[in-house]
Amino acid sequence: MAASSELIARDVLAYLQAHERKSLLRFITCGSVDDGKSTLIGRLLYESKMIFDDQLTALEQDSKKVGTRGGELDFALLVDGLAAEREQGITIDVAYRFFATERRKFIVADTPGHEQYTRNMVTGASTAELAVILIDARRGVLTQTRRHSFLVRLLGISRVVLAVNKMDLVDYARERFEAIVADYRVFAARIGLTDITAIPLSAVHGDNVVARSARTAWYQGPALLEHLEGVEVDAALSRAPFRLPVQWVNRPNADFRGFAGQIVSGVVRPGDRVRVLPSGREAHVARIVTADGDLEAAVAGQSVTLTLGSETDVSRGDVLAAGDAPPQVASQFEATLVWLHEEPMLQGRSYLMKAGTRTAQATISPLKHKVNVNTLEHAAAEKLELNDIGVCELELDRAIAFEPYAENRALGGFILIDRLSNATVGAGLINFALRRSQNVHWQALDVDKGRRAQLKGQQACVLWLTGLSGAGKSTIANLIEKKLAAQGRHTYLLDGDNVRHGLNKDLGFTAQDRVENIRRVAEVSRLMVDAGLIVLVSFISPFRSERRMARELFAAGEFLEVFVDTPLAEAERRDVKGLYKKARRGELKNFTGIDSPYETPENPEIRIDTTSLSAEAAADEVIARLAAVRITGA
């Protein structure tokens, strides 16, 4: 850092103040494998004097040990920090680097080129304002080039630098450069990318990276760094209406209550009228509090604590917005989804949706289509695999404040999280709210679940019997209902086979059909419990995720999972319906226990071992448990 070190040595405060006044540009580098992304960033760091002396020494040593330049400085090693990256010469993780010039500060994200790491590229692009898309001059536009370009446009990045790298390997041929640029512009126009600056580069030798190279005298445009320094930083967020997703309710003592978060758009001042969403309550801003004192105004990008002039109910996940220009509120959306996990996305499955600071439960239904990034054609699909991009409808369990992603990334972007593993499985962009979500409201009713159950002299609940085919679920459920009926209880039995004759007759036995099968039955069960009934559900229900989804539809104590535990060998030996034999012969596909998994319950309320209990004894045990938890009384 030789250039900056002199100013730091003379006057640290002056150095910091000079940096504060500089604008900040966030950009990403992306492209196919081995296009030279890490080398380019390393060269930028080196040429901008942002490498400490000890880093330069380490780079010289590493270049001799593991470099790919025959002992010369291998700039990629400045960015590829993982051992696996150095061994393979590729980028796996997203590497963020900061550097600065006399004119501007930069944060660059070096994103992976391999298709399997597309999720990392999406992460890097989510906060970027510009994308540097690299192309190997020898190979031209590739599938991954198109994929990354499509994602760049999808994620709201409109400015692109097309960096045609490794020009030294094609003798700096103008014809080759222009052919690649022409090919790329055809595809870019189809996806709506029009702000493109094409630059011929050799990151290894530094041609057109910081200064224009004599080797490309035919090129009259700017060098890469010159372009990055001069490109206009988008100020649209500061001009947009005020938005602050509440991250934390700051309550250090009884005399202070503030709402902390980062302003994602607009400007706020004391005295401004703000609206709290989704509740719609209004208040006026009293103070803008920071660690360095109160502010007269705060703008997009600043993290602050706001206090309000009146006692207003505000919680984490709410959005404080300009009172005269609030965002929309809805619970159903059309969204574009990028799938990021090895386990496929299944229609009807419930996921956690993290949108800003709000977390909600989201169900994907239906998946409208997926997009072929090469042809841009829309193809019908029932699920999304790793790296697939599709358009779907989302149903949330609560309304959230939002804006379309094209208008506001912070309020229009979200991630999906697996409810069991807590893994991030998808990243999405809200396109618009579905009209039906604005037309459907809860109707207040005077007779509620408690009153209906009281009239029947019982506590409503659902007994969810799960287990393999042939475990004895239907037999046990039938006996339980018979015994409850003898006690004068009001019940209803939903059996897996019977329901498929009507409500679920349109569903097969694929994973996504099984998910939808359970979703529908869980919703019907909730209505029956609301009617005050004791509901018996006898379904294989093989997936923990759907059983958990069903459980969460009910109040505490209303859902009892009954695991009818029968080993596969025993269930197959019984094979009352002959289904196992058909499955073994290949006549039945997606049969649970054979070619489709069964995920055993982890903590069921009741476990029935059918190898040691008869069906009659099993039914008696469940009845006894109901009495013990005061559902049916002694």
Report a brief summary of the structure.
This protein is α/β, with parallel strands linked by helices. 30% of the residues lie in helices and 28% in strands.
Structural write-up:
The protein has 634 residues and is α/β, with parallel strands linked by helices. The protein is built from 20 helices and 29 strands. The strands form 6 sheets. A 7-stranded antiparallel sheet has the order 7-15-11-12-14-9-8, with no helix packed on it. A 6-stranded mixed sheet has the order 2-3-1-4-5-6, sandwiched between helices. It has a 6-stranded antiparallel barrel with strand order 16-22-19-18-23-24. Helix 1 (2-10) crosses helix 2 and helix 14 packs across helix 20 (615-628).
Large-scale geometry? globular
Helix content: 25-40%
Q: Helical element count?
A: 20
Alpha carbon gap, first and last residue:
80 Å
Name the CATH architecture of the largest domain.
Answer: 3-Layer(aba) Sandwich
Kindly identify the CATH topology of the largest domain.
Answer: Rossmann fold
CATH class of the largest domain: Alpha Beta
Report the sheet-strand fraction.
Answer: 25-35%
Mean pLDDT across residues: 86
Query: Which regions have little confidence, pLDDT < 50, spanning 5+ residues?
Result: 81-93
Tally of strands: 29
How would a crystallographer describe the biggest sheet? 7 strands, antiparallel
| Integer tally of domains | 4
Q: What Rg do the Cα atoms give? A: 30 Å
Strand order of the largest sheet: 7-15-11-12-14-9-8
What is the assigned CATH homologous superfamily of the largest domain?
P-loop containing nucleotide triphosphate hydrolases
Classification by helices and strands? alpha/beta
